[in-house]
Design goal:
endonuclease, two-stranded antiparallel sheet, 228 residues, His-Me finger endonuclease fold
Amino acid sequence: MPLPLDDQDGRRRCRDCGEWKPLAEFCVSSKRPSGRGSYCKPCFNNRSKASYAKRVGEKHGREVRATREVPEGHRFCADCGTVKPVVDFPRNRADSTGYATYCKPCHNSRTKEVRQRLYGGSREYHLRRRYGIGEKEFQELLAEQGGVCAVCGAEDPQHVDHDHRTGWVRGILCFNCNGGLGQFRDSPTRLARAITYLRGTTWQRALIHPGVYQMCSPTRGRPPSRPS
């Protein structure tokens, strides 16, 4: 005599595992009056995998690789063949798990190999991706500057300076000059005011009483300088 599928409490007995479970834990089926199938979701998934493996074996003559059991909070890296915590994998929003397929060391090795194969190295990749020029254009621009920083004249500058608004490359600068322009937000007005400040508006301490000092400017008594 077949076992009853539903009881009065909205539960069903799975035909595979024999456990009584809520209807919500059974797969949706439009063929059943209750709208749920005869197998719970884990059993249904196992049946689907077995059916797929059988079809592939009969049609293509190859064996389907069994699903690897991985502890919760871990992930299997196909490159090094080890199971590691998910924190050892780079983030990847395109993946349903939120993490990349390969662990960080393997991911870095693959990235380095791709950059070497397509661009000849990481520097060429960085220059083209960030500034739209390659090492050849970099060296040509540096030669036009006489091989020195376009601002201070320091030798062997290695930083590409570009207009953050348009993206156009402006020149090759040393670390300090490139960082300085960035700190001043590429603003001619700020730079002009800084020049004015350095030329004569630096505040100094004046002794007005034993042990008491007052901050004063050497330009006190005349209008402050204005940028031209």
